Amino acid sequence: MTQPQLNEFIPPQECPVFEPSWEEFADPFAYINKIRPIAEKTGICKIRPPPEWQPPFACDVDRLKFTPRIQRLNELEAQTRVKLNFLDQIAKFWELQGSTLKIPHVERKILDLYQLNKLVNEEGGFDAVCRERRWTKISVKMGFAPGKAIGSHLRAHYERILYPYNLFQVGANLPKATLTHDTKDKEYTPHDLPQRQSVQPQETCSIARRAKRMRSERSCFKIGPGGIRENRPNLRRRMGTYMAKQEPVKMEITEVKQEPIEHMDPTEYEENLLTIIDKPPVNKVETYMCLVCGSGSAEDRLLLCDGCDDSYHIFCLIPPLHEVPKGDWRCPKCLAQECGKPPVAFGFEQASRSYTLQAFGDMADSFKSDYFNMPVHMVPTELVEKEFWRLVSTIEEDVTVEYGADIASKEFGSGFPVRNSHFEVSSEDEHYLTSGWNLNNMPVLDASVLTHITADICGMKVPWLYVGMCFSSFCWHIEDHWSYSINYLHWGEPKTWYGAPGYAAEHLESVMKKLAPELFESQPDLLHQLVTIMNPNTLMNNGVPIFRTNQCAGEFVITFPRAYHSGFNQGFNFAEAVNFCTMDWMPIGRSCVDHYRQLSRYCVFSHDEMVCNMAFKADTMDVDLASALLGDMTTMIKEEEELRVKIKKIGVVQSRQVDYEVLPDEARQCCKCRTTCYLSGISCACSPNKIACLYHAQDLCSCFLSNLTLHYKFTLDELYPLLESVKLRAESYKNWLCAVQDIVENNATKKRGLDELHGLVEQAETKMFPQTSLVDQLRALISEADKVAVTAQQLLNGKRQTRYRSGGGKSQNQNELTVEELRSFVQQLDTLPCNIRQAPLLKDLLTRVDDFQQHSDRLLSDESPSPQELQDLLDVSLGLDVELPQLPLLRERLEQARWLEAVEQASSRPDSLCLDTMRRLIDQGVGLAPHSSVERAMARLQELLTVSEQWEERVLSLMDARPYHSIDTFDAALQEVENIPAYLPNCLQLKDVVTKAKKWLHEAEMLQLGGRIPVLDGLSELVLRAESIPVRLEPLSRLEALVSDVQSWKESAAKTFLLKSFPLSLLEVLCPRCEAGSAHQKCRSKKVKEAPQLGKKASTKLESVCDVERALSESKDSASAMTALSEVRQREMEILLSLRASNESKLLPAENSCALSVCVCQKAPSGAMVQCELCRDIFHRDCVTTTAELEHGQAWLCPLCQRSRKPPLDKVLPLLASLQRIRVRLPEGDALRFLIERTVRWQHRVQQACTDGVLERVSAVGRVGLKMSPYQTQEINGSLFYTERQSIPLQGLGPELEELMVEGFLLQVTLPETEKLYRYLLDELVALPSHSPSYENDTEPSPRGSPHHKNGDSGLKKQALNGQNKRTKRRKDSSDSQHGEKAKKSRKKKLKKNKERSEESKRTCSPSHTVSDPALSDSEEDYSLCAAPWCREPEGDEVNWVQCDGSCNQWFHQVCVGLSAERAEKEDYVCISCTQPDYDRGE
After folding, report:
1. In the prediction, which pLDDT does 522 show?
2. What tens digit of pLDDT does each residue of 87-105 get?
3. What is the DSSP string of 832-852?
4. Average pLDDT, the chain
5. What is the dihedral of CA 14, 19, 20, 25, to 10 degrees?
């Protein structure tokens, strides 16, 4: 395939071609509607009728005489016409300068002056191109090869030919205008395109409304004082063209740089032009004087203008002339006038002579054969097509052709036969008279919309004839009202078509306006004039989809709504065309009217009038057409109602009913948008001949709106009944008719039921539809269907005897039908045009029989069919009352399949295939019919049974052997057994034994792997599991020895710790307590709520001994066990401290508003009571073990707190050592280890407390405070009791000492530190009993003064109260503050003195309370002690003190009580003991 040359025409894609059958060809509109979804995508399509369809040519050839249009090919193409207009302007400019334009050649081709001028302007003009040296760039853009110095030639030609013209256009002074020529330059003959339009087309049809689009709005007028100028002969190089007679023309050249000038009347333009030009002088002498210099000298050099007779010296002109021009010459004023005239719309010329069909054919054939130099029938269509588009695009060759277009068929006769014409139609051709494809019939068919237009519109309802020759063309256009068009080529050479789909119409218009804007500026409605074409390749390159086709003789071409189309003729031919509108066009037609209204373009007919005419005939209208009309009429009435409401609102109140159809179209066109009014219009008395549509009521005149009158054809009340009649027709008869047609023609996709057919007949009778043949056909179909339905019901009921068999002549019923008999009857049902109620049942029966036979054949051919499928198939046969020969074979195969399935299922589940199952399956298989699959299954089953029985016996003897075999022996046997696919109990037991043994050995190995210490629970569980494993396990003896050692250790530990007959276990004794108190299970949550500030909440996971034991057993190592026990210890301390505070608070009078229950008996306190040092609860002396054997200084613990023997630490440590040697972890061992670690930590804390002076501060408090005495009687709620033994008061202990003492009591080990600490605190804080010997005489005087007795104390308090009205703060100041070594020495000295004082206080302690004297000297203040139990012992030379303003008068360091110096001076301070007498540090 050769590549196309540059600018060679490339044919577009072919449009669809349809070849209908005779059935499809019978109804034109139905077939067009069928192909519309495909064809409207391309805009045009071609239809080839059936070969037998050949209508006779009925045109009166003898009478046909027409005047063709003259078409100059290169003037048709839009871009070429722009170039020709430009060249005509250049030629006119130089002609008026006295020179002739010759177009130069460059590289052996004519120079495109238009493109050169356009490119130079785009680059900034001549000066800019020269300055920036862009001539080479311009030459490349024009298609010349670079490197040949073409740019210099282009510059020379531009400067010589175009530059003076451009200077003239902008009004600059012209240089010396001398137009030199080369010998190769070709002389240019102006085309004078607009001037030729004075010859207008003739009116060939009296009713040719469409011809209005070719009428010129301007007439010829004079261009100068000399009158009409004769045009010079239009010399063209023609190839066989007919030259028309010369006509007078006028010359007009558009000025490029000016804005478009609106068209005006020629006389007005001439008057305006004359006012611009100076009037010539009246005096004859002045006419011979130069208008530039004013001198009349050098008469031989005076030049007289051929336009206005003004005189100029040739040397005064700009540019000056060297000699007088030989031809016509125009002065600068006339030149400006001539070049400034407005353009005239382009149109075709009419030829000066008329042709007969024969004469035109001779001319056309002669032209084509001469042009191509070959016979006309031998010229390829592709060659003609490429040559046509080459000619329309060139300015070098001027080819002129003629085209007989828009010839009225009504005047000369159509090419199709029609009735009452001169043409006699033969009997065999009479059907062409009524054929829908006869273009005289198509617009007026019942399904056509145009049949409701009363007027005959030439070209639209009445066909037009077209006689073409080679290259004669029809330009780009769309049909009026965006209607369909159909063109039939009767005979002759092909016609080439180009089309664009309707959706691309606006795109095509915009592309043409963009590529040739100069044409649209002077002629905005250019595309409506059918005078312009554009190369399809150009449109395609700009994105417009274009399709083509060659229409041969006997073929139709259809264009679709708003599809632009154009084309040309390949040679002499005769075609006929007409418009038509189908029902799908109606909304498109209304959109076209709206489009025309916006463009102010006239309508060929009134769309609303056509719709109303259709509505009046709704009763007889086609149903589908009525449906389309319904939608369009609804839109029309809604729009009309809105417009009338709008008109009424703006003030138009007068109205009058008018019959618009009697008025000619010109009399009812809107003066603004030229729309043809029908439903309504607006008129005014000031202009009775003018009318406006309701859209432009305010544009009619300047009168008041109240003066306007609304003219209407119908009232709205008249329109709505019309709409209802259309709706009724569309919805009722339409549905009935369509249903009946589908039934009768049997072409419905879904058949209707017999009951529905009866309903349709009844509906036709009740609604009185037209009695057509369809009703009779329907009744006949119903009668036949009723008979078939009765027979079918008898067959289903089994009552009809169908045939007889031999053997006694017995009859058989329908349920014994053969399959073939049933199939034959069902086929009869399919031929019915309706469905009977019994048909689905019979079809279903046949379908099920066919399925049964196919399924049974497949299963019987299968080697091993599924028993379920066989059973399902046999179940299906129960519902088939037909003879089925496959049933016996199916039942036999079912038994075999079930047995095979049982064998397969048993084999697929070896865990359930026992020996009994094998024996049972073998017994069942013996009774089956012989089959290869059954025999193979029996052999496999028997072999498996034999092997399984042998191994069962061997495995049983292996496990019963004593002593036990090793694991290797069991494992070897297991490997052989595992390959047997059966359920063998002994073999499974063997597998379980081996699995357990291996798991046990693995766990035993992992128990102490890597130095791990096993847990007792795991060890015991492992030993216990070994008893059930009948295998010789090597590690078992060692593990049993370990368990025995652990049990011995636990017994030894229990003897060491546990009390006799005490319910607690060893773990409960060794672990920290999880609860405390006599009713801890009942009151635990309450106590925690009462004292939430004592510490964090205990972990909910360790609230009982069981939780602790589980946590210790699950712990991974000793560290995690110690962590868990630490949490329990923390919880133990919180509970005990809370319990102590609670029990102490019960003994206070203010806290016992209700009955008090104490002791293990839970009764009220009375008589002698003893108090537990740990839980601080009191007990009746008779309820608990007597305390008589306890010495002074020994703490008494209640039965709930005394949990073990509390052995000495030296007896406990060997237990831990022996456990470590055993190397087994158990909860009791972890608890013992934690107990010892806790004991050691407690001892360290006691030593630290002694070192930090905590005990000395307690001694100081004992000396300063009031000691508690035993045997003091108390009364609570009327109950009197006293305590035999005095416990350490909580008020004298700090939180640290109390926690230390409590933890010492909690330790289940006897320590000397515990007894010493308790005795020390008891001595310091508790007075001796009153009956005990007094130590008052042995005391030595205190360094701070002698002790004060009670009376003295009272007197001292009284003296203090009388001496001052308000206690003031006192401050003890030391000497100036010093730091460093001096401060350290001072602190050491003070500590030493404090120790000495504590020793003296022990020796001088007395039962009476002592109070520091507030009047101590400054020297004695240095030895004072802070009364705060939590004293921080501040150091330094300056320590600030503050005295309590409450009842105790004690001294405190300001730092210890959280006071600043400023605050202590300004405010009273009351210590916590005075503000909260019941303060408990344990809370």
Report:
1. 63
2. 777 777 777 776 777 778 8
3. SSSB-TTHHHHHHHHHHHHHH
4. 75
5. 90
Dihedral angle computed from the Cα positions of residues 1418, 1419, 1422 and 1423, in that order, rounded to the nearest 10 degrees: -120
Q: Which residues of 162-187 are buried (b: 16+ CB within 10 A; e: fewer)?
A: bbbbbebeeeeeeeebeeebeeebee
* Contact by Cβ (8 Å): 505, 562: yes
Identify whether the C-beta of residue 748 lies closer than 8 Å to the C-beta of residue 742: yes
Alpha helices (runs of H) in 408-494, residue ranges in sequence order:
409-412, 431-434
- The answer to whether 1308 touches 1069, Cβ cutoff 8 Å, is yes
Residue 786 neighbours by CB under 8 Å, 6+ apart: 754
| pLDDT-derived band at 799, boundaries 50, 70, 90 | very low
DSSP run (H or E) holding 725 = helix 716-728
The pLDDT of residue 486: 95
* Spatial contact of 242 and 351, defined as CB atoms under 8 Å apart: yes
Question: Whole-angstrom Cα distance, residue 613 to residue 454?
Answer: 9
The two structure tokens encoding residue 909: 């589940």
For 307, list phi and psi in degrees, rounded to 5. Answer: -105, -45
| Nearest C-alpha neighbor of 460 from the set 582, 605, 360 | 605
Return the exposure string of 1390-1402: e unless at least 16 CB atoms fall within 10 Å of the residue's CB, then b: eeeebeebbebbe
pLDDT band at 1286 (very low <50, low <70, confident <90, very high): confident
Sorting pLDDT into bands at 50, 70 and 90, what band is 347?
A: low
Listed residue (264, 296, 554) closest to 415, CA to CA:
554
The reported pLDDT for the residue numbered 286 is 46
Contact 364, 241 (CB under 8 A): no
Q: Taking 50 as the threshold, does the pLDDT of residue 114 lie above it?
A: yes
| Single-letter amino acid, residue 1298 | E
Question: 1267: helix, coil or strand?
Answer: coil
Q: Beta strands 1167-1171 and 1279-1283: pairing type? A: parallel
CB 1314 within 8 Å of CB 1304: yes
CA distance 1348 to 1327: 16
CB neighbours of 1032 closer than 8 A, spacing ≥ 6? 963, 964, 965, 966, 967
Rounded Cα distance between 679 and 897, Å, is 86
Q: Are 1264 and 1425 in contact (CB under 8 A)?
A: yes
* Pairing of the two strands 811-812 and 687-692: unpaired
pLDDT band at 188 (very low <50, low <70, confident <90, very high): low
Report whether 620 contacts 673 (CB < 8 A): no
Closest CA to 1117 of 1254, 1258, 1243, 1015: 1015
State both tokens at 23.
């059935």
Greater confidence, 179 or 1460? Answer: 1460
Tens of pLDDT, residue by residue over 585-644, are 999 999 999 999 988 888 888 899 999 988 988 877 776 788 888 899 999 999 999 999
pLDDT for residue 1106 is more than 80: yes
User: Burial level of 1251, CB count in 10 A (0-12/13-18/19+)?
Assistant: exposed
As a whole number of Å, the CA-based R_g of the chain is 65
Q: How far is CA 738 from CA 428, 730, 766, 1119, 1208, in A?
A: 33, 11, 18, 96, 117
Closest alpha carbon to 731 in 627, 846, 854: 627
Output 1336 or 525, whichever has higher pLDDT.
Answer: 525
Residue reference for tokens 């009977």: 836
Q: What is the pLDDT of residue 814?
A: 43
> Mind listing the pLDDT tens digit for each residue in 1246-1274?
888 888 877 777 766 655 554 555 556 77
> What pTM value is reported for the model?
0.48
Give Cα separations from 282 to 224, 288, 306, 312, 1086 (angstroms).
Answer: 18, 11, 18, 17, 138
- Report whether pLDDT(652) > 80: yes
CB burial class (10 A; 0-12, 13-18, 19+) of residue 212?
A: exposed
